Amino acid sequence: MVGLSVDGLYSHIAWLRTIKEKIEYKGMKNVEVTFPLIEDITMEIAGKYGMIQPGESNTKAVRAVFVIDPKGIIRTIIYYPLSLGRNFDELYRVIIALQTADEFSVATPADWRPGDEVIVPTAGSCGVAKERMESKAEDTKCYDWFFCTRKLDKETILNKIVKK
């Protein structure tokens, strides 16, 4: 995790100190930000990542989250207007879903959470699709040739992808 701000170094230091020493919110206090913050006062990086949005501000970057995989590929981009806070439960869900999809060669449906059914990728040919539809595998349920799901339990997922 890395933070990027178009504010300067001294603003970062003041912001971090304020969070640690003065803010108590939803039962959290003395919170220490431990990830690095990048100063981008020229807004060069923010501009390259599309964080300067029309209609927001010419001098402020929108809040944006980029999930970049170990190969350096941007897998997810979520933009938040300046007036809207991030949803950390959703960000965690996105990361776990991406890792689950990669690790188990599946897709995740809307609102998926670990332990919910996953989508089995479609077959490459009509013959294979028909075979999959007629499959009696207990853990797979097909609704149509293009939409089959199977159970993938939460423990299996978390044991495989979450670093302890």
Description of the structure:
The protein has 164 residues and is α+β, with helices and mostly antiparallel strands. It folds into two domains: 3-86, Glutaredoxin; 90-161, Antioxidant, Horf6, Chain A, domain2 (Antioxidant, Horf6, Chain A, domain 2), CATH 3.30.1020. The chain has five helices and nine strands, in the order E-H-E-E-E-H-E-E-H-E-H-E-E-H. The strands form four sheets. A three-stranded antiparallel beta sheet has the order 7-9-8, with no helix packed on it. A two-stranded parallel sheet has the order 1-4. The protein has a two-stranded antiparallel ribbon with strand order 2-3. A hairpin with a 5-residue loop joins strand 5 (63-68) and strand 6. The chain starts with a strand and ends with a helix. The mean pLDDT is 87.
The CATH superfamily label of the largest domain reads: Glutaredoxin
- SSE series: EHEEEHEEHEHEEH
Strands of the largest sheet, in order across it? 7-9-8
| Structural shape | elongated
What fraction of residues sit in β-strands?
15-25%
**What is the class of the largest domain in the CATH system?**
Alpha Beta
> How much helicity do the residues have?
25-40%
First and last CA, distance: 17 Å
Using only CA atoms, what is the Rg?
A: 21 Å
Total number of β-strand segments? 9
